[in-house]
Amino acid sequence: MAYHVLPDLVIHDDDIVVTYIHASGPGGQNVNKVATAAQIRFDATRCATLTSRLRARLRLLAGSRMTRDGVVILTAQRFRSQSRNREDAIERLLDLLRQAAHVPTRRIATRPSRTQRRRRMDDKSRRARIKQGRGRPMAE
């Protein structure tokens, strides 16, 4: 199975390793018997579809969820069933990859115009006069 992150970016099922572990939280008597939490491992360094730029952005966004070897580890235990936790973990991985693929536009530094600066200083002076008028009246 293949997961389409973007139209030009596809992650194959064999790039993702899913293991199941015991989950904390709700589950009743089932919680101690069945490993319902899904833990997925995605090896970004070995994935052929990722570009080096995308890997670098993924490393920044993943933070502590990525190991030194470049493996992204995500654990999902929100639901009581293995299948829903697996789907949740994979969806979170795909969202992370979408964020890494989105390159933010660089901000162009601009300066305020002379009129804007003058208006700002006039407003500051007006506020200062208002606040000065709130003081105690001077004794004559």
Automatic annotation (TrEMBL):
Domain Prokaryotic-type class I peptide chain release factors span(s) in chain numbering: 9-134
InterPro entries assigned: Pep_chain_release_fac_I
Q: Which GO terms describe its molecular function?
A: peptidyl-tRNA hydrolase activity; ribosome binding; translation release factor activity
Keyword Hydrolase assigned: yes
Q: What is this protein called?
A: Aminoacyl-tRNA hydrolase
Q: Keywords on this record?
A: Hydrolase
Q: Where is the composition biased (Basic residues)?
A: 104-119
